[in-house]
Amino acid sequence: MEADWNACLQTLEGHSNSVTSVVFSADGRYLASGSDDKTVKIWDPITGGCLQTLEGHSNLVISVVFSADGRYLASCSGDKTVKIWDPITGGCLQTLEGHSNWVSSVVFSADGQYLALGSYDKTVKIWDPTTGGCLQTLEGHSNLVTSVVFSADGRYLALCSDDKTVKIWDPITSRCLQTLEGHSDWVRSVVFSADGQRLASGSEDNTVKIWDPITGGCLQTLEGHSNLVTSVVFSADGRYLASGSYDKTVKIWDLITGRCLQSLNIGRALQQLSFDPTSSMRLSTDIGILNLELPNPAPRVILQMGVETTLPARHIGYGLSSDGVWVMKDMEKMLWLPPGYRPGTSVVLGSEVAIGCPSGRILVMKFS
């Protein structure tokens, strides 16, 4: 363990049941947490003070998400509603009702003008978060909707479902533009490339498919995972794709050749993946930042006798070990976490690590 590190440690107590979701605002000023105790809390991650306790849901809070500009906080619940809050005042601005089953996915458009909700009732509803009006109801899937995503410019909305398909919609007119078929099992995740020219989908059939969202054609099928794919993300330049899986690996793919460049042994299934917008060599995850070490401009394909080699994940900066037992800096163990403080959910933002515990505690560490 390093001797020359400093940490500001806060233990945030107040939830009376398991913490289901923790998220930082984009500017890092606020931390929001949702819990099985039916409440949302907003915290100051520096002082550890609870700024707001948001009450009103009649069932557990499944997830919380800030809009990009931080004006709104949305919480979805087992009570089949989504509430929109003012994170400064703690006021409930809107209660969005209309789904007949749990809301599984909540996403703001990049400009914050729209909020899309995917549900186990097989529909997606698009809302105006300012007025609380339901603008569109998108129907057509024959099974529950698992994930919803806007394109960066807001022109398209993609939905994936347990009916094994992905549908692409015009969120303004509510026209279904494409139905993408080809997966042989439930589709768990979907994402647009930054330029909107490609769409990736990850499935319980263990594959990732790359699609042309305009024509609906399947451009590539990426095979190699040995269990369902939970998350997919494009690099900013569109050259690479990262996929996370229940096989406890993250794979990095070259989308020019369709080959797997690296397979990283993470030791757990990751739900959150995003490339650093300035570098394709860094991948942000729910346990920290991973160094991909891909040589540029022609990455080395790691193959031996035609068999892919799985490498240990290399951390950059602060994060968590794959088993949730240690706080890490780079590749070194820094701080051991007692069993009662290990993550049920976690988020890392720069040098800040937030852990939501099954006990209801939240642990926030800021390193310098």
Explain what you see:
WD repeats lie at residues 12-53, 54-95, 96-137, 138-179, 180-221, 222-263. Belongs to the WD repeat MDV1/CAF4 family. The protein is mainly β and 368 residues long. The chain has a single domain (11-293, 306-366), classed as 7 Propeller (Methylamine Dehydrogenase, Chain H). The chain is built from no helices and 37 strands. It has strands at 7-12, 19-24, 31-35, 40-43, 50-54, 61-66, 73-77, 82-85, 92-96, 103-108, 115-119, 124-127, 134-138, 145-150, 157-161, 166-170, 175-180, 187-192, 199-203, 208-211, 218-222, 229-234, 240-245, 249-254, 259-265, 273-276, 279-285, 288-291, 303-304, 307-308, 310-312, 315-320, 326-329, 332-336, 345-349, 352-356, 362-367. A 6-stranded antiparallel β-sheet has the order 26-27-28-32-33-34, with no helix packed on it. It is globular. Residues 297-307 have low confidence and may be disordered.
What's the CATH topology label?
Methylamine Dehydrogenase, Chain H
How large a portion of the residues is in β-strands, by DSSP E? over 45%
CATH class: Mainly Beta
The shape is: globular
Question: What do we call the CATH homologous superfamily?
Answer: YVTN repeat-like/Quinoprotein amine dehydrogenase
Q: Which strand order does the major sheet show?
A: 26-27-28-32-33-34
Tally of individual helices: 0
Determine the mean pLDDT: 88
Rg, rounded, reads: 20 Å
Spatial gap, N to C terminus: 15 Å
Number of DSSP strands?
Answer: 37
Largest sheet: 6 strands, antiparallel
Uncertain residue segments: 297-307
Assembly state (oligomeric):
single chain
